[in-house]
Write a structure and sequence with these properties.
The chain has helices spanning about 1-5, 10-35, 40-50, 55-65, 70-75, 85-90, 95-125, 140-145, 155-170, 180-190, 195. By secondary structure, it is an all-alpha fold. It has 2 domains: about 1-150, no CATH class; about 155-195, no CATH class. Helix 2 runs antiparallel to helix 3 (about 40-50), helix 2 (about 10-35) runs parallel beside helix 7 (about 95-125) and helix 3 (about 40-50) packs antiparallel against helix 7.
Length: about 230
């Protein structure tokens, strides 16, 4: 763990910690809903440990199916492969940072997900109306905290505001899930086509590329003094 702290920047470690916190609250909601729905306590507790992520299970099966050893598949780190650990790894610039980010987030999720599920199962066994806690709002709140620094960029802020406005307007009229998809489509249009949204005459941040220097014209031959053609 000390090598991970030395390899990764403080901002990356902060984002990993916030993401693991979000995963903890999702596990909390998962455990509470499972027990409140009639499942025994051990079901969410066992699944949160042994079925950590679908991606890791696919990779494990793929390695073993390709004549790899199950022990080798486990040592590769397949059990901690999930969306969060892969995203943080791919966001780093070099291999040492990618490896450190993968293990930092993967191990964090491995701790926070079962911990949240077990605690949520305990809550669900005591409180049957788990919706009153509003646990489902914790994950979006943590994700919002992660993207706040990026909102200083004008284009990112414009895309986020447009997506939020579209989602709020169409939510009363569309089924669940469609407002988010429409907002995502608007965000992609604004981000992937910035030239179409730029106001006329608005300057860009890109510096013009200087034209290459022109070659000097060839010298013309002149007749020597005292001689004529």
């Amino acid at each position: 763990m000390s090598s991970i702290r030395r390899t990764l920047e403080r901002g990356v470690l902060r984002d990993v910690a916030l993401t693991c916190l979000a995963v903890f609250f999702i596990g909390l909601s998962y455990g509470a809903v499972a027990v409140a729905s009639g499942f025994p306590f051990w079901v969410p507790a066992a699944q949160s440990v042994f079925v950590l992520a679908g991606a890791s299970e696919f990779l494990f099966i793929g390695i073993v199916a390709a004549a790899g050893s199950p022990v080798a598949a486990a040592l590769v780190g397949t059990h901690v492969m999930n969306d969060e650990s892969v995203v943080f790894a791919l966001a780093q610039d070099d291999l040492p940072r990618q490896r450190a980010a993968y293990w930092a987030c993967g191990l964090g999720v491995l701790i926070c997900w079962p911990g949240g599920a077990v605690l949520g199962a305990l809550i669900g066994s005591a409180v049957h109306d788990t919706n009153s806690f509003g646990l489902d709002a914790m994950f979006p709140a943590v994700i919002l905290a992660l993207i706040v620094p990026d909102l200083r960029d004008r284009m990112t802020l414009r895309a986020a505001l447009a997506g939020a406005a579209i989602a709020l307007v169409v939510t009363p009229f569309l089924p669940a899930g469609l407002p988010v998809l429409l907002a995502l489509a608007a965000v992609l249009l604004l981000v992937l086509a910035p030239d179409a949204t730029r106001e006329p005459g608005q300057e860009t941040d890109e510096q013009p590329v200087p034209a290459p220097p022109r070659a000097a014209p060839p010298a013309t031959a002149t007749a020597p003094p005292g001689r004529s053609r």
